[in-house]
């Protein structure tokens, strides 16, 4: 079981590491995309983010039964589904940071 809340609270400790910094920046960009009115920009951002952290999202998918790899599925989603996926991606990005930093054991990934 992945401890999402621990990852979210503690990712700021690793902001001075390059991977930790990138994850925090992408989390902020993801929150900004929620305010974006253009659905195409949201879908493109979601696809880019999933592609960027593909390996880490595969690890999360094994533990959380969520499919991150179907890029074609993104462009068939409704506005509400895209917003739901953006919110889920925001919660997953701190976990991605811990995976990239090699600290998966701290959040329950062995």
What does this 3D model show about the protein?
This protein is an all-alpha fold and 110 residues long. The protein is built from 6 helices and no strands. The longest helix has 22 residues, at 79-100. It is globular. The relative contact order is 0.22. The mean pLDDT is 89.
Mean pLDDT: 89
Radius of gyration: 13 Å
As an assembly, this protein is single chain
Helical content class: 55-70%
General shape: globular
Give me the number of helical elements. Answer: 6
* Structure classification: mainly alpha
Distance between the termini: 10 Å
User: For the report, how would you describe the main beta sheet?
Assistant: none
* Low-confidence runs of at least 5 consecutive residues: none
Q: What is the helix/strand order? A: HHHHHH
Proportion of residues in β-strands: under 5%
Count of individual beta strands: 0
Describe the structure in brief.
With 110 residues, the chain is mainly alpha-helical. It has 6 helices and no strands.
């Amino acid at each position: 079981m992945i401890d999402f809340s621990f990852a979210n609270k503690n990712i700021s400790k690793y902001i001075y590491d390059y991977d930790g910094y990138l994850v925090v920046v992408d989390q902020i960009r993801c929150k900004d995309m929620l305010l974006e009115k253009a659905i195409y920009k949201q879908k493109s951002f979601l696809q880019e983010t999933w592609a960027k952290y593909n390996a880490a999202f595969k690890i999360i998918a094994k533990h959380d039964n969520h499919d991150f790899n179907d890029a074609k599925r993104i462009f068939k989603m409704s506005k509400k589904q895209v917003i739901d996926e953006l919110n889920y991606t925001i919660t997953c990005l701190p976990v991605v940071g811990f995976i990239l930093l090699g600290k998966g054991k701290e959040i329950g990934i062995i």
